[in-house]
Amino acid sequence: MYYLGPEYSFSHEAALKFSNKVYPTKSISEIFYIVEKEKVFGIVPLENSLEGPIHESLDNLFKYDNIYINYVYNMGIKLFLASKDGKIRDTLYTNHYAYKESEEFIKNLNINKIEFVSSTSEAARLAKENNSMCICSKLAVENYGLNIIKEINTENNYTKFALISNKPSYYGNRSIILFTIKNKPGALYNVLKIFYKENINLTMIYSRPLKTIPWEYYFYLEFEGKYNKKLLEQLKNVTEILKFKGSYKIL
Fold first, then answer.
1. Chain Cα centroid distance, residue 100
2. Could you tell me the residue range of the domain that residue 88 belongs to?
3. In a domain, 106, yes or no
4. Which of 101, 122, 152 is the last residue of a domain?
5. What long-range pairs does 98-104 form, CB within 8 A, spacing at least 24?
6. Is 210 domain-assigned?
7. Inside any domain, residue 181
8. pLDDT tens per residue across span 164-213
9. pLDDT tens for residues 126-161?
């Protein structure tokens, strides 16, 4: 199973919930590429309870037609400010999402320079290497030989991690579709009306720009329930592109 590395990232922790044989990658996009090419499993962050969907994961779900979500793991996130000697330093390494989740706390620190990196474990590695600070997990603190300066109090901080593969899953209590619609009045209403008529609850709807056409968008929609052939047949009539991306249990 492939995850966003280096070792001891939150993605690493999530991957270990599913397999003991896990391998780091340099980016979320690389995970999707490997999953499609090698027909293996990957795990990617899908959504954070404080900062919303992870754009790189959503965009790759739309890009790769034959990659599906099989399970979702809901992980509680605890962030720590750390350095090699446990002292405040003037440079901070962090990834974008950890920074946004800790922004109010960071404002109170006297930091001259903030360096953004791909993951919290990469932040920990660089903090040790450059005698700086980082925001990371407790697992990264312990394994990179850092010392905690302070636990960052971010209540209700959870991240959903999606187990992805080339095999579609048709059973579970949640499902995801991606779709595009014509740019005209009532187009989105026609989609949502079908869910209302079928008495199906929506748990998330979100729009992202298409990479191929400026100012055009696709929609990411999660709903309660498993694969529903009747529902998808109705949705085909009111969408331009429709992609079923899997039904799954939330663990």
1. 14
2. 79-152
3. yes
4. 152
5. 98/123, 98/135, 98/136, 99/135, 100/50, 100/51, 101/48, 101/50, 101/51, 101/77, 101/152, 101/154, 101/157, 102/135, 102/152, 102/154
6. yes
7. yes
8. 999 999 999 999 999 999 999 999 999 999 999 999 999 999 999 998 88
9. 999 999 999 999 999 999 999 999 999 778 899 999
Is the Cβ–Cβ distance between 245 and 61 less than 8 Å? yes
SS3 call for 86: coil
Q: Which residue has the tokens 């919290």?
A: 120
Query: For the whole model, what pTM was predicted?
Result: 0.91
Do 173 and 234 lie in one domain? The reply is: yes
Calpha distance 118→59 (Å, rounded): 17
Which alpha helices (H) appear in the chain, and where do they start and end?
10-16, 28-38, 55-63, 96-101, 103-107, 120-129, 138-143, 187-197, 229-236
Q: Are 132 and 83 in contact (CB under 8 A)?
A: yes
For residues 178 and 148, membership in a common domain is answered with: no
CATH code for the domain of 230:
3.30.70.260
Beta partners for 3?
Answer: 24
- On whether residue 9 sits in a domain, the answer given is no
- Residues 172, 251 within the same domain: yes
